[in-house]
Amino acid sequence: MKHKQTWLTRGSFALLLFVILGYVVKFYPEQLTNIDQPIQAGIRGDLPRLWTNFFATMTQLANIPVIISWVLIFVLFFLWKNWQSEALYVAGNLALSGLLVSLLKQVYQRPRPSISHLVQETGFSFPSGHSLAATLVFGSLIVVMYQRIQKKPLRYLMQGMCLLLIGIVLVSRVYLGVHYPSDVLGGALLGFGVLCLEYPFYDEWRFKRRFTRKQS
């Protein structure tokens, strides 16, 4: 595949940044206070009801029951279209996000912010599971759209919507008070890094399956 090394370099760099951030979170969390608090204050503002209702609703896109439900719909659609590689790619990344979050939260064990939480959350804070799941799953859909939607205006529209949804989920976690900005950044870096490392191998596997007519 062309540019394979480029994708691997991007992914490695993103994961390196995640590791550095995780190191600071684990051993020097006070160093992030001067960064996290101003961003929290700027995003939350005076908590207007309109924004509170909006972000409380949008953050549910990455809640476990919700994200499993709509990923299942996409997977069934892909299987109906005989796109087995795409179905496994999206479903696999959802499962991977769950495994990574379960493992890494136990490694870092960062308490959640002490500010008011506008939604109910339990467990540790770093990395943000919603941010990781949104980045991995919506990112996977962006890749599938790039490969499958031929009309550029429609493709750009759909990909732009996915990027917007990622951004909204990330901001919602900070606004709702259940994550520090660095938690959200960590989840996004990890998700982006995994996507970049996966992409050349997924694309090569998909090409082989299509070449041998094992799928459409």
Question: What are the main properties of this structure?
Answer:
globular; mainly alpha; membrane; Vanadium-containing Chloroperoxidase, domain 1; 75% helix; 216 residues; transmembrane; Phosphatase PAP2 family protein
Explain this structure to me?
The chain has 216 residues and is mainly alpha-helical. The protein has one domain (4-34, 51-211): Vanadium-containing Chloroperoxidase, domain 1 (Up-down Bundle), CATH 1.20.144. Helix content is 75%, strand content 0%. The chain is built from eight helices and no strands. It has helices spanning 4-27, 33-44, 49-58, 64-80, 84-108, 129-148, 152-175, 181-211. Helix 4 packs antiparallel against helix 5. The longest helix is centred in the last third of the chain and has 31 residues, at 181-211. It starts with a helix and ends in a 5-residue tail after the last helix.
Structural class: mainly alpha
Ends distance: 19 Å
Order of helices and strands: HHHHHHHH
CATH class: Mainly Alpha
Radius of gyration: 18 Å
Q: What's the architecture, going by CATH?
A: Up-down Bundle
Runs with pLDDT <50, length 5+? none
For the secondary structure, the number of strands is: 0
The biggest sheet, with number of strands, parallel, antiparallel or mixed sense and barrel status, is: none
